[in-house]
Amino acid sequence: MSRNVTVADIAREAGVSMMTVSRVINHKGEVSAATRQRVQKVIDRLNYRPSGIARSLATNHSGTIGLMIPDVSNPFFAAVARGAEHVAGAEGYNIFLCNTEEDPQRELAVLHSLEEKRVDGVVVFSRLETRQLVGLLKQQPASVLINRQTSKNNNDHAIGTVRLDDVLGGQLVTRHLLDRGHRRIGFLAGPPTSHSGQARAKGYLQTMTAAGFPPDPLWVHNCAPTVEGGLASARDLLRLQPTLTALFCFNDLVAVGALQACVELGRAVPHDLAIAGYDDIPLAALVTPPLTTCRTPRYELGAQAVQLLLNRIRGCNEPCEEVVLQPELIIRASAP
Amino acid sequence: MSRNVTVADIAREAGVSMMTVSRVINHKGEVSAATRQRVQKVIDRLNYRPSGIARSLATNHSGTIGLMIPDVSNPFFAAVARGAEHVAGAEGYNIFLCNTEEDPQRELAVLHSLEEKRVDGVVVFSRLETRQLVGLLKQQPASVLINRQTSKNNNDHAIGTVRLDDVLGGQLVTRHLLDRGHRRIGFLAGPPTSHSGQARAKGYLQTMTAAGFPPDPLWVHNCAPTVEGGLASARDLLRLQPTLTALFCFNDLVAVGALQACVELGRAVPHDLAIAGYDDIPLAALVTPPLTTCRTPRYELGAQAVQLLLNRIRGCNEPCEEVVLQPELIIRASAP
DNA sequence: CTGTTAGCGCGTTCAT
DNA sequence: ATGAACGCGCTAACAG
């Protein structure tokens, strides 16, 4: 492969200075239409591509964004990534995709590598402890946290946040079940460490209590956020608490596991037990019976995160430091 | 944010030349243990991060790879992306994620932007016509095509390929159905433009014919590669060809649609009709009945693609220009 | 409207 | 084992 064409080549070939070529490329400053055309012609003829690397070095601005998530092959994060990429692409930015696999060590390594790549900012879904995370993000020129509440005292570092209103989601689902006459509602809460799970639990507890039916703590079990986790945990809970009439599950996968448990135990859904999931992943509508669930705007989560980040990068530090996205109740046959 | 720390700062602070600092960072050349430690101490104290940008400009080597796919939120490509990112990360490379949304214009724009970013290579899943695609990839320092056969006459441009053996997959599924006594096997072929669909059709036709049961062309219908597409197309096919005893579907989503059609038509699966899907997406094991399908090593597809690309980038142009990955038959209740 | 000068932060020569 | 000078390709800040 021959040496790359540079501004110098274009300038020489077109009989102008490098500066003029630069102006043509960047549509900046005034250039006479005549020279502009002449230069553009040479650029096209030589198939010239300006070096983003050199430009970045000169402008101190790379046109790249880092996206750190646990795992793209998780449908939730895949949608986030798609939203993020779409907005970034439309605004002329490229996205570095970084999976952490839930590993704190990888989180550190990723953030580190992103620093070296001199990204203009990062969008991050992290499991790190807040204190440490804030310290790391302070090293980045700009950052937005996904689905995680920043403590107010940290907003001096101007970390943006985009999150789902999981408390509301928990309320919506619980209220729906209450409205349909359920009083003994179990809760498969997901991993104890999940911020989302805690918020949904809060919505569940609040709503039950406000309605005058405070739930028995024994109706709440933690579980892995997977089909297997849901199956195992539902099996236990339904045996220990056979009088429950409804089950609110941490997410749709857990709900699918609960469905399987019901098959095992010979309990008809929704007749013997109503089941609600969370997220509305595509699978939710395809299982038997289709799941009542709470749709989370995942694509929007990524899209808005990048939008907020770009605002910050561009200096418009609007009042809007925290974006909260609303979930939507989706009623299907598993809890009609 | 204060000005970034540079080699110069470290050098001054440590009382050595920039060159020595550089040697310490890159573990190159001989540096006395004493000075190495002294320099390292300053680096740590100032929390110095070498600028990848400047380094790239100097070395003509960016440590980045472009990944162009239609859509990360498609589980197939999400798995590919994960495999790609994993290998890249392990080798110290970062990945630019680029979605094309099946839009040729976006493909051009993406490849263009990747050129400007001076990626060291690209991994590409493209819908572009071969001639044009090869022309574009020739501009990149290295490239690997996913799931697409390069015509032999183009291998002078050294475009690598990693693909699934879809013909074999078609054979495996068809043979399984034949083995279970099915003779009248329908085929929902997916979109007519799909390379994969054509290959699977080939496997199906070959196997049926070789077994002495050449299929009636009327048993083959095209369809959109979605649940809705499968539902509509299965509905039609099963009405027109009520004597079919088995259905081989383009992918698992289509197969789920076919399952729904069977519910509508009152045909029990697998008793009245056996159904096989393709891909083994997570959903496949969760529907009722669970789907017999053909597992495609999607993660491996991305992982091997990046591995091959890195080999090329590093100059080891091994004989292995084309990697073919084998699918695996997964037998479940929909076609036991 | 156009050109000149001077770096951006690093690695690669060559010296020492 | 260490250092000085130069260049990677481009743009910001000034001229003219």
Quick summary:
The structure is a homodimer of 336-residue chains. Chain A has 336 residues and is an alpha/beta fold. The first copy, chain A, contains 12 helices and 12 strands.
Set out the fold topology.
The structure is a homodimer of 336-residue chains.
Chain A: H1 7-14, H2 18-26, H3 33-46, H4 52-59, E1 64-69, H5 75-90, E2 94-99, H6 104-116, E3 121-124, H7 130-137, E4 143-146, E5 159-164, H8 166-179, E6 185-188, H9 195-210, E7 220-221, H10 227-240, E8 246-249, H11 252-265, E9 274-276, E10 293-295, H12 298-313, E11 322-325, E12 328-330
Parallel strand pairs in A: 1-2, 1-3, 3-4, 4-5, 5-11, 6-7, 6-8, 8-9
Antiparallel strand pairs in A: 10-12
Chain A binds a DNA duplex (16 and 16 nucleotides) through residues 4, 6-8, 16-20, 22-23, 25-26, 28-32, 35, 50-51, 53-60.
Report on the structure:
The structure is a homodimer of 336-residue chains. Chain A has 336 residues and is α/β, with parallel strands linked by helices. Chain A folds into three domains: 7-50, 434 Repressor (Amino-terminal Domain) (Orthogonal Bundle); 62-165 and 298-326, 3-Layer(aba) Sandwich (Rossmann fold), CATH 3.40.50; 166-297, 3-Layer(aba) Sandwich (Rossmann fold), CATH 3.40.50. In chain A, 45% of the residues lie in helices and 15% in strands. Chain A contains twelve helices and twelve strands. Chain A has helices spanning 7-14, 18-26, 33-46, 52-59, 75-90, 104-116, 130-137, 166-179, 195-210, 227-240, 252-265, 298-313; strands at residues 64-69, 94-99, 121-124, 143-146, 159-164, 185-188, 220-221, 246-249, 274-276, 293-295, 322-325, 328-330. The first copy, chain A, has a six-stranded parallel beta sheet, sandwiched between helices. In chain A, helix 9 (195-210) links the parallel strand 6 (185-188) and strand 7 (220-221). In chain A, helix 8 packs parallel to helix 9 (195-210). Chain A is elongated. The termini of chain A are far apart. In chain A, 49% of the residues are buried. Chains A and B meet through helix 4, helix 5, strand 2 and helix 6 of A and helix 4, helix 5, strand 2 and helix 6 of B. Strand 2 (94-99) of chain A pairs antiparallel with strand 2 (94-99) of chain B, so a sheet runs across the interface. The first copy, chain A, binds a DNA duplex (16 and 16 nucleotides) through residues 4, 6-8, 16-20, 22-23, 25-26, 28-32, 35, 50-51, 53-60.
